[in-house]
Amino acid sequence: MKFATQDAVKSRRGTRPEAVILFSVAGQMFVIAADSVQEIRSADSLSGAAHEIERPEIPKVHHTIERNHRTYYVVNAGMHFGLPVTRPALVLILRQLRAAVLVDRIERMTEISAVHPLPRAFTGQERTWYRGLGYLDNRVIPVIQPSGFLTAEEFRRLDRAAKAAASQREMEGAVQS
Question: What is the pLDDT of residues 79-92, one digit of tens each?
Fold first, then answer.
């Protein structure tokens, strides 16, 4: 117990509050650093701009979107976290990655005073999904690691599939001409 107390004190020492976006997926709350999100859009507003990936190799990614001459892979957060299927209403376009994330709703923007290390009980994929845990409104909430939505290998696989699909569309367009 002594170690847990020391870790908690260390995580609070010398930190400034961090601006975060509190959002939900299938009734579960998460936070992500506000500076990790470039844009928040309605999922409906992307319906004409999103391109479906036929036969997706990675089930949590079914679409791409183009923003500022850049292709983003759209990750369904519910599928990513293994939560029940919902109809996401919003998409968070991430700043540093070529990924966008479908979420159910944004609760609010707020601040958390610290990100606490994940307990050792977290031993699986969640160690890459989360930066740690935050304490907000008397609740412990996972703090998302944006790079945890898609691994480097998943990006390579998606890039190969997107390139193959683009080549296929070009060939079909040439045949029709």
Answer: 999 999 899 999 99
CA 177 to chain centre: 40
Distance, CA of 54 to CA of 35 (rounded, Å): 32
Both tokens assigned to 125: 């994929």
Q: What is the DSSP secondary-structure string of 90-139?
A: EEEEESSSSEEEEESEEEEEEEES--BPPPTT--STHHHHEEEEEEETTE
Alpha helices in the chain, H assignment, sequence order: 2-12, 77-81, 126-129, 152-176
* Distance separating alpha carbons of residues 5 and 7, to the nearest angstrom: 5
69: alpha, beta or left? (left if phi > 0; alpha if psi -120 to 50): left
- Burial grade of 55 (CB within 10 A; 0-12, 13-18, 19 or more): exposed
pLDDT tens, position by position, 118-129: 999 888 888 999
